[in-house]
Write a structure and sequence with these properties.
The protein is an alpha+beta fold and 571 residues long. The chain has 19 helices and 18 strands. Strands 3, 4, 5, 6, 11, 12, 13, 14, 15 and 16 form a 10-stranded mixed sheet that branches. Strands 1, 2, 7, 8, 9, 10, 17 and 18 form an 8-stranded mixed sheet that branches. A hairpin with a 2-residue loop joins strand 8 and strand 9. Helix 2 packs across helix 11, helix 16 runs parallel beside helix 18 and helix 17 crosses helix 18.
Length: 571
């Protein structure tokens, strides 16, 4: 197969050394790759699966300051997160957009006394519902962090009557609603691909990245890398090794000969519903509230569907990462608490996904009170002269800041200066993205030669200004045709993505280069049509197409234990 993974692995194998080797292709690894490439550092990155397929692919699709972390006393993290949120609204406006968020409140003073006690006891004590007074205090502090560069409106409070006028499907027992603004992350995987593309463009031959390439051991002071497709191995030398494998950090260090115990991740699951009544009931805003168990949960309209999450459960990394039926029951119950007249059925679930947060080890501390901040641990590579830096923690919102922190540690070890900051530097298709309607229409008109304006608008929304390359690929492909089962896409578009974005397997395209799986459009018939469309680009024959369709469907439903088991039985 002449696929993207062999090109990526070949580039690493042909010159098996660099100043820095990053292990882990999630958002934190990719952002560190981009930052170091911008500094002129010779850097290579490997990911054992597809890029952005681990914890980073299981997010709540939000860029947020973390208002609830105020209760834990994490003021530094919240300030940094709000600052990064505001910056991302400018740096990546194609995927990061203001998100109106409403908190339904059912009491006035509850939690005012218990919250400071939880802070002082680091999460100890019984759970008490957060009342209006406590939420008001938190939102005032939250707003204050946006001063001097704030990109979103300040919060508002509404009484019961006004709240039910604005959101008539809310539980009539509501006393108040608090509405504030954070940011949505419409396409996290595509933003990550933009970060990767930027890093490669900045570093050229000195910025190499390979998916489906695993760090499996150490040989003579070098990291042993294995191509997970062909089985080929190469020993790779680097002065600094960055372990950015998220919740797998300890397992990666173990493979490198250092049994660490840094991590204590918790599992978070989500479901995606095709439920028009629920979509309408949200009023176009995220509902962010407290369940009876004290866990903060969300109901979030996105891409014509409704995202519901999340759980926060202790998880052993040796176990499967799935969204269980008990978690689905939990989600359906919480929807009923806030929107009691909206009927939700399991048959309306079009996608479910689960991931493990890369949290630090936390002993007996309850998961909801574990710090979401990050730190970097340093240790020598066993049997070699390299230094291993392990990132512990990290979240989507602060990926640029944590990457900058990690890159600075690397630069210090290499005795290299920082050439430039990534602060304010546009990401991928966010560069030159039109943020007003007038500018948008001008951009569309200027790129509509050869394609209808409506199609250009769709591509602009999907890719940002990187759509220029997609448009050119479509116009230049005489065999381009609209897909019958997924008419929002065309064959030339998908071939271009497969060719230019490291697609190795069908599920890479279904789950991480497009939102087809997320919105429930990855049916068996659609998968077959898509696989046939990209097969010429990836050198797939009929047998490979069939195998990729089977694999793709299994991956799409991997977080659904019932469908996975029935699929196994069918085979």
């Amino acid at each position: 197969m002449a696929g993207a993974t062999e090109r990526g692995f070949d580039a690493v194998a042909e010159r098996p050394y660099a100043d820095v080797l990053i292990v882990g292709g999630g958002i934190n690894g990719l952002a560190t790759f981009r930052d170091l490439a911008l500094q002129g550092v010779d850097v290579a990155l490997v990911e054992r699966d597809d890029f952005i397929s681990g914890a980073s692919a299981a997010s709540s699709h939000m860029i947020h300051g973390g208002i609830r972390y105020l209760e834990n006393g994490e003021f530094r993290l919240v300030h940094e997160a709000v600052t990064e949120r505001n910056a991302l609204l400018r740096m990546a406006p194609h995927y990061v957009r203001p998100l109106q968020t409403t908190i339904p409140i059912f009491s006035t003073f509850s939690g005012v006394l218990s919250a400071p006690l939880r802070f002082l006891r680091h999460g100890g004590g019984g759970h008490r519902e957060r009342g209006a007074a406590l939420i008001k205090i938190g939102l005032v502090i939250y707003d204050s962090f946006s001063r001097g560069g704030g990109r979103v409106p300040r919060h508002t409070f509404r009484g019961r009557k006004r709240s039910l006028q604005e959101l008539p499907d809310l539980n009539p027992g509501v006393k108040y609603t608090a509405t504030y603004w954070d940011a949505s992350l419409h396409d996290p995987e595509r933003l990550a691909i933009d970060v990767l593309r930027d890093g490669r463009a900045s570093g050229g031959d000195h910025a190499r990245a390979a998916n489906y390439t695993a760090a499996v051991g150490v040989a003579d002071g070098r990291v042993l890398l294995r191509d997970m497709v062909s089985g080929r191995e190469v020993a790779f030398a680097a002065s600094v090794i960055v372990n950015a494998t998220g919740p797998w950090t300890d397992l990666t260090n173990l493979a490198l000969g250092d049994p660490t115990r840094y991590m204590g991740g918790t599992k978070g699951s989500h479901i995606v519903l095709d439920n028009p009544a629920l979509l309408a009931a949200t009023g176009g805003r995220e509902l962010f509230f407290e369940n009876a168990d004290g866990r903060i949960v969300l109901i979030y309209p996105l891409k014509g569907r409704v995202l519901v999450g999340t759980t926060d459960l202790e998880h052993d990394m040796g176990d499967e990462i799935v969204c269980t039926e008990a978690e689905v029951d939990y989600f359906i119950d919480l929807i009923g608490q806030v929107l009691p007249e909206v009927v939700v059925e399991r048959s309306q679930i079009v996608f479910r996904f689960a991931g493990v947060r890369p949290l630090p080890g936390h002993g007996e501390l309850a998961p909801g009170f574990v710090s979401r901040d990050y730190r970097v641990e340093s240790a020598p590579l066993p049997g070699g002269d390299a230094t291993v830096l392990s990132l512990v923690g990290g979240k989507w919102t602060t990926f640029r800041a944590s990457a900058e922190h990690l890159a600075d540690r690397v630069l210090h070890l290499l005795a290299r200066p920082r050439r430039r900051s990534t602060r304010g530097l546009a990401i991928g298709g966010g560069s030159g993205f039109p943020v007003t309607e007038r500018a948008r229409q001008q951009w569309i008109a200027g790129h509509a030669e050869g394609l209808p304006a409506a199609r250009v608008a769709t591509l602009l929304d999907r890719y940002g200004t990187v759509a220029t390359a997609v448009i050119a690929a479509i116009v230049d492909d005489p065999d381009d045709a609209t897909l019958e089962l997924v008419p929002g896409f065309s064959t030339a578009e998908l071939r271009h993505v497969a060719r230019s974005e490291d697609v190795v397997h069908l599920d890479d395209l279904l789950m991480r280069r497009t939102s087809l799986a997320f919105v429930g459009d990855a049916s068996p018939e659609a998968c077959a049509e898509i696989a046939a469309a990209i097969a010429p680009e990836l050198g797939w024959d009929d047998a490979r197409i069939a195998a990729e369709v089977e694999r793709g469907l299994a991956k799409v439903h991997a977080a659904d234990p019932a469908r996975t088991e029935s699929s196994r039985a069918a085979r």
